Amino acid sequence: MFPNLAFALLAIEASAQTVTSTVTTTATSALPTLQSDWYFIRAVETPYYHSYLQTIPSATPGPAHLAINTNAGQFNIVSGQLVYNTGTEQLYMNVEDPANKTQRTLQTWFNVTENAYGTFAFQGDAITWTVEDIDRQNTAAWFVCGEDKLYINTGAYGYETPDGCHDQTIHSYGGSTPTV
């Protein structure tokens, strides 16, 4: 009577098994354990609420990302440098030094060399970045754009946000494991 009903029920059952399998795999993944004198850094605004600072692939030089907690990096600010403790070496967040100082987004990435442009600091638990040749209204303003990449926001937080970007602030978190 309903020739496609059996097919539809099989498709729904297969889809449910896939979702169940994915959830089970994610739930059983080991989360990083925070080492003494280090912090997780995470966003606190939607749509990146409790997304964690890291590189992809994890613990390698490359663009700074905000992503899921399973590969959260461990960080601290030492002598104005945002330092990523990978377990084998330390990486430093670097910031683009643009020719056009009115540019709204500055790229960030992690590298084995120290950052030569600007200074990082904690303001409470917020992560800030300052530099002498750019007057920022909010030194704790960041963007997440495109493929979850982290940028410095040189303009006002929540005003004239570029297409494809989201305003964020990022904060240190000292819990033993990164929560969702």
From TrEMBL:
Keywords annotated in UniProt: Signal
Signal sequence, renumbered to the chain: 1-16
Protein name: Lipocalin-like domain-containing protein
Annotated source species: Aspergillus caelatus
